[in-house]
Batch of 3 targets.
Target 1
Amino acid sequence: MSIKVKGFLKDVGGASRVTELRKKSIETASAVPDPVDNIRAVADALHPDHMEFRVTAVREASPTSRVYRMVSTDGHIPVFQAGQYVNFRLKIGQSELTRPYTISSAPFDARGEQGYVEVTIRRNRPYLVPDWFFENVGVGTVLQGNMPFGTFYYEPLRDSKNLLALAGGSGITPFYSMAREIAYGKMKGVRLTILYGSVHHSDIVLGEELARVERDCPEVKVVHVLSGDEGWTGEKGFITKELIAKYMGEDPTVLFCGPIAMYKLVEQAVTELGLTCRRFRHDVMNQPSDPAQLAGYPAGNKNKVWKLKVLRGIHEDLIEARGDEPVAVALERAAIPVDTHCRCGECGYCRTQLLSGEIFVSPNGDGRRLMDKEMGWFHACSAYPVSDLTIRIPIL
Ligand SMILES: Cc1cc2nc3c(=O)[nH]c(=O)nc-3n(C[C@H](O)[C@H](O)[C@H](O)COP(=O)(O)OP(=O)(O)OC[C@H]3O[C@@H](n4cnc5c(N)ncnc54)[C@H](O)[C@@H]3O)c2cc1C
Ligand code: FES
């Protein structure tokens, strides 16, 4: 106790000395602002507003997916965690689009003089942005964007060192990044087991790369679970409660990244296994291509086309907005720039003011603050028009 009192008195004494020192430095300070702002420079290096990525290699990661390796044109790649994403800013036709892609390489790959990041993009059906990548992006292409974003990464203060990853489709990318980082010895004491669900073995993304990490690193185990491959001799079917129980080990943190349909099955399984919210986390998920899958989505709205009045500073545009697409997509289609990052309602970058009309907000990731809800703000990436609307957005 006496130590605490002494420490307290020392702090009080110290505070008065600091006040004196501050007074002196204010009195002797120059009236002209210091042109070198070191703190700003560090902040900019950690979170640059804008980056340029030059593609240096492209390779296949499965019959339907490609890995794009990129360096930063100014040589600096900000520090990031395995599981975070790059947000690309793309011009496709007249539209300026932003799209997130998880960094599938390890943070350690980005360090040093030859530092790089990789994204793995899947095109298993016609898609706007993956189609554009596959058809337009090759070695030498310069892409605009920035990084790092996202909160889906291992946090030692919160997570168990025993990680069980549940992945589907391109949802393997954050876990491949983690696996590589573990193999580099950069996530000390962490063990990672990946249950990776696919239909057929040819659907597995980064299959050879995963096999290599597993072979080289005893802390990483990969279990493929195939639901439609007759000849498969490994685990079959979907990722069930029984499979999770079989592989989860002692006191795991379960991490999920995959499609919404898979999430629903997995969420029920982990709940039945008695895992607490703290021990079950999922990455952000895109809105489903069919919003009728969303609980509460108004029947009959899917085929409607609404009028959307968009106010931006002194600009006023009147555009169409389909009932089956989020408001952000209507803006993108009309070539009105809108800043999106997570595209699932979580981050708030696309925060928009609703001046009139009605919207349906997706229950998947309504990350608005209570005050925003009450004051008529919404996230355009995860809200669907259900009447004609008037909205106000910032000018980008
Ligand atoms: C955090 C995060 C990380 C991700 N990481 C990965 C990853 O590692 N790998 C991966 O493959 N995917 C990843 N994704 C998904 C990825 O961001 C894309 O959503 C995905 O590749 C599909 O592309 P798309 O959005 O163009 O799809 P689409 O479904 O083709 O398009 C999206 C919307 O744009 C609309 N649209 C159509 N035409 C136009 C037009 N002319 N102008 C404007 N809009 C139009 C479509 O109707 C649709 O509503 C990630 C998503 C998130 C949220
Ligand atoms: S882009 Fe993140 S909330 Fe809309």
Target 2
Amino acid sequence: MTRYFKATVLENTALNKHFRLLTIDAGRSTLNAQCIPAPGQFYMLHSNSTYDPLLKRPFSIFKHEDNSLKFLYRIRGKGTICLSNLRDGDIIEVIGPLGNSYPEPEGDFIAIAGGVGIASLLPLLDICKNTGYLFYGARSKDELVMLSEAGALSKEVFVATDDGSEGRKGVITELLKSFLNNLKSEISNFKLPIYACGPKPMLKELSEIAHASGMKCYVSLEEHMACGVGACLGCVVKTVSGYRRVCKEGPVFDIKDIVWE
Ligand SMILES: Cc1cc2nc3c(=O)[nH]c(=O)nc-3n(C[C@H](O)[C@H](O)[C@H](O)COP(=O)(O)OP(=O)(O)OC[C@H]3O[C@@H](n4cnc5c(N)ncnc54)[C@H](O)[C@@H]3O)c2cc1C
Ligand code: FES
């Protein structure tokens, strides 16, 4: 069940220059049994103090505890700058939880996060504690936010940064390929489901890895959104069975269904 509601900002903490963690009080009646967010679902958020930008912006649920919801966000443009200016006690407009969620893994799994994609995957690592191999890539060490929190929930963590300031230098998909190749030589027919969220080039590369290895792979797509509730068709992606709305049929898709353009 999806709800529109107003929420009070409890905290809006700067993690570094680019990233913040927003905590809002959604109220007891909002987070009842039908409205508990599942990993992969998202909310549309809008700072109530301004109509510029007019449209709400989508953010993955990062954590929820009692009446509070937490969102990890990267400051990019007008919408996220407005969010970054929110102070304790401010009121924001919220719609959610929205979209589908990651199918729950039945055993060990691989999670691959590019940058702020960790926001979408951390709740999955949390509900399946110590069963996920986390592959986490970012531009540099500063952008590996929540690495220790995610690491504490994972079976093993592999890190890559573009500039080599932490972990392996290069893209995270290269690290995943070496991991899979090593395992293939030790265990024949090694297959784990992959869960991914990150920039499009990472997901495209992953679709080739998943295809070549025959491993099941679920991706959360981060398209631009206008309404967030399936009405405007502003977020469609091409799939093998036609166009699909990321906000309604997604954001989580089986990677083999996506037509990469
Ligand atoms: C389902 C879903 C979940 C999301 N979860 C999170 C989250 O948990 N944390 C988070 O920080 N972000 C998340 N995003 C992305 C977030 O919604 C955008 O960063 C935000 O809408 C940007 O708004 P803005 O007004 O600040 O930037 P805009 O002014 O709209 O854009 C500023 C710049 O950022 C680029 N940009 C905007 N959106 C994206 C995007 N999705 N990917 C890459 N570049 C983009 C634009 O092309 C432009 O260059 C999610 C997106 C979706 C669809
Ligand atoms: S954002 Fe309007 S249909 Fe998806």
Target 3
Amino acid sequence: MITVENLTKRYGSFTAVDDISFEVTPGSVVGFLGPNGAGKSTAMRMMTGLTPPTSGRTLILGRAYRDLPNPARQVGVMLDAAAQHPGRTGREVLHLVGMTIGVPKDRVERSLEMVGLTSEEAKRRVRNYSLGMRQRLGLAGALMGDPQVLILDEPANGLDPQGIHWMRQLLRAYADQGGTVLLSSHLLHEVQIIADDLVMIGRGRIVARGSKAALLGAQGTRANSLDNDALAVAARAAGLEVSGDRNGLLIKATPEQVGRLALEARVVLTDLHTTGSEALEDLFLSLTAPDARDHVAA
Ligand SMILES: Nc1ncnc2c1ncn2[C@@H]1O[C@H](COP(=O)(O)OP(=O)(O)OP(=O)(O)O)[C@@H](O)[C@H]1O
Ligand SMILES: [Mg+2]
């Protein structure tokens, strides 16, 4: 369990993290999404005791990070995968982590296995690792203490699509066993694949949060049927907002609601889906647009 309460960080007159609050409950994978400079890393550094907050606090398993009896055994942290010692081999890096936090030696092999690094790869020096291999090694380090909570800053950075799916499976399995996962990303599609719930931030502030399903559905449902006019009439009669274009109807409702409407109106549906990733993308862009670094000149 992670509880973030009114967390704020100011650097002089600049507010990097502005009064954010949210919870990550056991069994869930929450994506902390925001554009470059939104304040994700700063917030995660505060959560893990590396940067003191200006105000607010974070409780992990009910305590501040610094008050956890053996933090590495309770919270796996990966903040900067690029910061690993380049001259050591992957296996050495994990051995050192294991010694520092006091876990049995066999945990190294187990962690390597969990992140899919082969024994041969573990013998190579980190300087010769690909970006994706570094991410896997960083994750292996975070998993060494068999923690209940994972806090990962941009863990999917540099992973190929297959790697992102692999990470989803790993984190999903971890959460299914009662683990709590918070991961950040500045890429919507990564978060969309990996996380169940989203917390979106822009310029230090939370701009949206909720389950991925709710955020995806928030924009509405795209529907096509053998009689779109009748379906539109039925939807409006039910008090729903309806718009239409050549791609069909866009109804502010869930697919289930639209399906029921069609059933009642005896209209045959030919296509029914949430406006999906484009909608979440639009939401992400619109929510963060005034905060975005780059404004494309018209
Ligand atoms: N020590 C510091 N002093 C001054 N400003 C800082 C400091 N650390 C971070 N910032 C500023 O806080 C803002 C948020 O930075 P942060 O690294 O948290 O963003 P981010 O969301 O992790 O971005 P990215 O996606 O690029 O990793 C940035 O404007 C950054 O310059
Ligand atoms: Mg960052």
